[in-house]
Amino acid sequence: MIAIGTAWLWPCGVTLAQTATPSPPALMLANRYHPGLDLNAYWVSEKLDGVRAFWDGQRLVSRGGLWIQAPAWFTEGWPAEPADGELWAGRGRFQQTVSAVRQQTPDDGAWRSIRFMVFDLPEHPADFTSRIAAYHAWVHARQQPWVQAVEQVRVSSHSELMQRLDTTVRAGGEGLMLHRGDTPYRAERSDDLVKLKRHEDAEAQVIAHETGRGQYAGLTGALRVRTPDGREFRLGSGLSDALRRSPPPLGAWVTYRYRGFNDSGLPRFATYLRVRGDMEPPPTPASR
After folding, report:
1. DSSP 64
2. From CA 171, how far away is CA 49, in angstroms rounded?
3. DSSP code per residue over 223-275
4. Which residues belong to the active site?
């Protein structure tokens, strides 16, 4: 990776804006779904597979604290009231979204296919049930087809929730979000917001490239990664030949899928999914 102006050019050709806000925005974060929740207290929506984006009243900011270089027309006329949402190009188009959002100079053509899906108003003082109507009004006032409100529905039982999950996944969706209706916006991780998916995934940071053997001799055999809580493990499954030739750089954040944990606390059957383009880039150049 080399520095060019105010951006980092990664070996895979990705350019990320280096300029960041003083700190990441204070956002509500989700726990994983678990039995025992009072489903009558929750609203349910589709979990959108895009890039979390926070409108701070002046510009879009990623979850990691990076300023998102959207075209001027995209946010024209947006109010000073902050909004929490997702930049989304549709089901199965995560890489398309990330590719557009990563660019320091926005590509108008790419941004034409992206929507800002609003799902909350962080500074609104009411509970979430009231905020649903408020964020719909926020969206309606824009009268811009690329600004849309995330729909919320109720479910009455676990079986109904799982049926909705199956329907969403079969249609190409990632999963569901459950948002407790009687709570204020709290910028913390709690059961106020819960995610439900068929497979668990998480993020980890690349700290080393391990040399491959056998058919992968001369290539990257696995990524050595570290989770936010300091656990380290090898991530080799899911790497394509192209990624083994040009792996995510040291310091990059990647998403992996797994199935529970083993006795040591490490994820079982961890499989590489993708680079998280909305996380902060490494603060200093790093080479393989």
Report:
1. T
2. 13
3. EEEE-TTS-EEEE-TT--HHHHHSPPPTT-EEEEEE-SB-TTSPBTT-EEEEE
4. 47
